[in-house]
Design goal:
single chain; about 210 residues; alpha+beta; Aminopeptidase; four-stranded antiparallel beta sheet; four-stranded mixed beta sheet; globular; binds coenzyme A
């Protein structure tokens, strides 16, 4: 890892970032991917936080990105607890597993902490996120919306930014609506990018 900077995303970066995210997620969780369209939509969402919309740049090209959204935990005692959710986060394919993702995420979390946010929750693989201080959200007493009580929730992760922020909270986390996109809209948007082969691969989570 060398010679990189982390900075806020600018308007001129949008298409390059969308292409980076497309390259990064392509065929990882499903044949093709939807995340490049998701970020395209999220930037215009009222819950989007422009001050936490970061890119990683090396030798004049973008090699990573991450973004955050505001959401809430609907607490069992009736309160709405403001929290952050995160992602997509992506590193360019040829630089995966070299430490850039952790550097980028640690930086973003530091900035989110400085802004006074209390906790971050999202869906992800503990194998990577445990390196950045995340644990299973169930350990904090937070449940994932629409998930049966006995279902595996190990995909649902949490990190407090303010220690003790969730100490007296149990409740249900809500994914911001902006993350839900229609397959046909993804297909249409994807036509604006160079053709790429969709493949069914072992380990993908969705058809
Ligand atoms: C996930 C991603 C952002 C991680 O960034 P990265 O630069 O590849 O990861 P790092 O090299 O910083 O990894 C830090 C640690 O997490 C581990 N790790 C990284 N990705 C992992 C994964 N998918 N599963 C398990 N462990 C992982 C690494 O082994 C490393 O541990 P080590 O230092 O003990 O070897 C990147 O691989 C990526 O863009 N993947 C495709 C898109 C994606 O899945 N995004 C996340 C969606 S939730």
């Amino acid at each position: 890892m060398s010679n990189y900077i982390i900075r806020l995303e600018e308007k001129k970066d949008h298409r390059e970032v969308e292409n980076l995210v497309r390259e990064s997620f392509w065929n990882v969780y499903r044949p093709g991917c939807s995340e490049h369209y998701v970020i395209h939509v999220l930037r215009d969402d009222p819950a989007f936080i422009p001050e936490l919309d970061f890119v990683m740049e090396q030798d004049g090209r973008l090699i990573g990105q991450n973004m955050f959204m505001k959401t809430v935990i609907e607490a069992d005692d009736g309160r709405e607890i403001p929290v952050l959710t995160m992602g997509p986060i992506g590193i360019t394919p040829e630089l995966k597993r070299k430490g850039y993702g952790k550097e980028l995420l640690d930086y973003c979390l530091e900035k989110a902490t400085e802004m006074g946010f209390g906790a971050v929750l999202f869906e992800g693989n503990i194998g990577f996120y445990s390196h950045c201080g995340f644990d299973y959200a169930s350990r904090f007493g937070i449940r994932y919306h629409d998930l049966p009580e006995d279902a595996d929730s190990s995909f649902f992760l949490c990190r407090e930014l303010t220690p003790g922020y969730l100490d007296d909270v149990t409740g249900v986390y809500q994914t911001p609506q902006g993350y839900y996109v229609k397959d046909e809209d993804v297909e249409e948007f994807d036509k604006q990018f160079p053709p790429k082969e969709k493949q069914k691969l072992p380990g993908q989570l969705f058809d």
